[in-house]
Amino acid sequence: MSVKAFKLVSAVEREMLMGDKNYINIECIECCGKNLYIGTNDCFIYHFMLDEKVSTAGKISFAATKQLHKYLGLKKPVSELKAASALTRLLVLCDNTITLVNMINLEPVPTGARIKGAVTFTLNENPVSGDPFCVEVCIISVKRRTIQMFMVFEDRVQIVKEVFTPEQPCAVAVDGYYLCLALTTQYIILNYNTGVSQDLFPYCSDEKRPIVKRIGRQEFLLAGPGGLGMFATVDGISQRAPVHWSENVIGAALCFPYVVALDNEFITVHSMLDQQQKQTLPFKEGHILQDFEGKVIVATNKGVYILVPLPLEKQIQDLLASHRVEEALVLAKGARRNIPKEKFQVMYKRILQQAGFIQFAQLQFLEAKELFR
What we know:
The protein is about 15% helix and about 45% strand. By secondary structure, the chain is mainly β. It has 2 domains: about 5-310, Methylamine Dehydrogenase, Chain H; about 320-370, no CATH class. The chain has a 4-stranded antiparallel beta sheet. Helix 2 (about 310-320) runs parallel beside helix 4. The longest helix is centred in the last third of the chain and has 21 residues, at about 340-360.
């Protein structure tokens, strides 16, 4: 049964990006605060400011204002963008090279610092160096079966470690010293400091696109066999039941308490609390789904959209209104980490009371008594 957990809102219309140039496609996006960056197939980076507007009726919309765009001078697509806001730097992957550019004017750093030979890269969101003026970058190298760790400063880069993998890696996520890797035939956890690795489960990267996503401290979300979204800790165990995706998931994101997945035709929303599918949104031609500081963004080749979460209290009230007491209570308990303690206690008491009256009206007196108590 469905819950209205998210609303899809347009953020950047195709005309703002490409006008009448049909050949321009969106390759990658990055969002940092109000800054939205878009990398295209014709080697441009576009910078927009995103302003959220709330109408008197509570309806949310976004106004994107173009700041500037910059041509990188190659005939290659911009394949990845990552912001390092502490350094006011944008890391740009194009033609297997990561270039550092200024987040404001998109100019390359004067020293020309860059990382060469990168197939793909990710940032360590739980860094081990402790230096606030440095970001830790992990790349899958063009060298076969090689992962490299770098420290990136404002105007220089420094290689820290090179690690060899048992098979060719095709996707990576990092947490501290732990790498969660999709190899050719399986997922593994690898501690790059000690070299100790642990097999998770088999997976064929030739048949489907692997998904490896850090979702919290020492925990990852992976696209498993049989259309399952699997959770794994750095110890190689799963503390949550898997969610059932479609077989051809392209991307996944987390917006607690929901896991959002994108396939060729739909955006699906599953609860991490009870693993049930809560919402399905039709969405054709999507190829990017990412979350940035709690903001979930999806994109087609031509436009960018934001999945705006409905307030949890509204979702709980909707569940109670349709007499789905058990689901409402599970969601209310799960909301504890998102709501200040005093406010949560007041809200939770009221929900228990409402749930009690619903059970009472359905002549479920023992359940009602427990809730009233």
